Amino acid sequence: MSGRGGRATLIAVAVVLAWLVIGGVAGPYAGRLTEVATNDNAAFLPTDAEATRAQDLAGEFVDRQTIPALVVYERPSGITDADRQRVSADAARFAQVPGVVAPLPPPIPSEDGQALQIVVPVDDAEGEEIGTVVERLRDITGGDRDGLTVDVSGPAGLLADLIEVFSAIDGPLLLVTLVVVLIILLVVYRSPVLWIFPLLAAGMSYALASVFVYLLADADVVKLNGQAQGILTVLVFGAGTDYALLLIARYREELHRHDRPWAAMRTAWKGAAPAIIASGGTVIVSLLCLLLSSLNSNRALGPVAAIGIGATLLVMLTFLPALLVLGGRWAFWPRRPREDQADPRAEHGIWSRIAGFVARHARPIWLSTAVVLAVLTLGLTQLGATTLGQSDLFTQRTDSVDGEEVIARHYPAGTGSPATIFTTEQTARQVAQVAQGVPGVADVRPLSTGPQTGPPEENTTPKVVDGRVQLEATLADPPDSDGAERTLRELRVAVHQVPGADAVVGGFTAINVDTSDAAKRDQNVIIPVVLVVIAVILALLLRALLAPVLLIATVLLSFAATLGLCAILFRHVFDFPGVDSSFPLFAFVFLVALGIDYNIFLMSRVREESVKRGTRAGVLAGLAVTGGVITSAGIVLAATFSALAVLPLVVLVELGTAVAIGVLIDTIIVRSLLVPALAYDIGPKIWWPGRLSRANGEREARDAG
């Protein structure tokens, strides 16, 4: 026995040392993900989207693709000569900034005389360095002075503000996530030692995931953006801690039955690993379903997050067990488990009482909880998926938001970011007339020949490239508003009807429209596929068909209730204008995949206990021994996703809030009450058509007789 124990200890030491070496190599990459991240929305569009085709055509009309920064100066009492001199001086300095495409167009005065606007074309090839260019422009303006306000806005200003937000991921978000997990682990374990093991393993998982994501993004195999990067952080630490809690809880149980830690871990690993692997596999496969998305941004999130879960599974099933074996019983100090052959339910008094309550009132419990969740789904009427406008994108004021509001007060709001129309030379005049007649279009002018030193002139010779002409349509509404999107859709309908025009409409607003349309298509395609995949995994794990159907139904009900409650909170508490078009799909993938996790943890143990005790007794035993650990896991996951609130971006705050609320609903209501009460009420038939349904049915019939 001592020989086997010595070999097990040596193996554990070797595994830990190997992982520490891997961690030393991979660790630095966790802080370098921002280097390979990109946040260009247009790059994420499908290649067949009209906005993408328009962007390709636009490249033929210019030597270099640009993204405009709009520098707007405002004095409510009227622009003075001194202001004009300052603007001219600033413009001269703007032209010298690396990344700015000179010459700059002359300042555009507002009709009311209270504002001046400079369109600063920034080379699109700058990529993430656009943020540096915009920061330099803001340094040159020097901010507000003597009653003259200055803001740098437009698409380049917005992108710069987004880059600044996502730069916080490597620091504050990771720190907040670590602190949250640490506090919860201290509360759960009440040990000054044990928390180290899951936190160290979660950190190792993040480092391993980071190196793979970095290398794949650097090789352009996957597209990493700030949103995926933030989700990767909280997902790895949240899911990793969940898996650790489940394994440690089972290990603690087995320490009561085995005198040697390695023997206890061997049994615990065999008992917990199938549920952990099934849980992680469900999440991975669900995330990989995002590869079916038509949006490159969604396709990027799928493999990035799946890599995170895959790395977490590998670490939690190798590195963590080795650490725990080396820690032995002392890891649980001061509440060290003894080898006393105690019934696992003895340590779970509260959950044993909850199990007893479920047994006495099974049918009323599952009916009442289902009704409560159904009532919460009524809030879905308050949920309106849309493309958030620039002023609605951030949870705090930014320079680009302030500038957008100034532009909207003094100019046609689409100035500086027009819709672009590409049509044949023969039909250009007719297309321009049709476009001008669309409500919401303020002005239509052709891109002229010669150097562009300002907005297109009305009576100039159009520039012709391969028989095509580019028209620029200035919209009356801000380019990221609902009004602009309605106008853009009407504009497309109008110009597409011109015979022989072969018109293509693009631009900033068109990108938003095509992104929203692609998001709706993705929901209709991906959600059914995810449900089918999860059903297959559950059927294989539980060796039944009825149980998977019921589990998926409870998770769907929980998902709908979560969105209903969130819709009410977002509108009436947080005062958000709506949710982004990508929100429902992301919320579904994470809530359903993660929500089904807890049902897997519960029902896999229930099945294990049902083989020994019978179905109804197995339900109660499974609930009693898993209740505490699964609730702790749910709280950890909810808290880690709540950490997304440190990023001042509405879409991530909404996603973090939805996942946190949904996980808590799944943990506290669905998994603790609804599912066990439903399974207890149904009895052995829950395993239909598997053999367990017949065997347990006969056993319970004999017991009843």
From TrEMBL:
Pfam families: MMPL. Its main location: membrane. InterPro entries: MMPL_dom, Mycobact_MmpL, SSD. Residues 231-326, 552-680 form the SSD domain. GO terms for cellular component: plasma membrane. The keyword Protease does not apply. Keywords: Cell membrane, Membrane, Transmembrane, Transmembrane helix. It is found in: Cell membrane. The chain crosses the membrane at residues 171-189, 196-217, 229-251, 272-293, 305-326, 365-385, 525-542, 549-570, 582-602, 614-639, 645-665. It is a multi-pass membrane protein. The keyword NAD does not apply. Signal peptide: none annotated. Residues 442-463 are annotated as: Disordered. Belongs to the resistance-nodulation-cell division (RND) (TC 2.A.6) family. MmpL subfamily. This is RND superfamily putative drug exporter. It comes from Micromonospora jinlongensis.
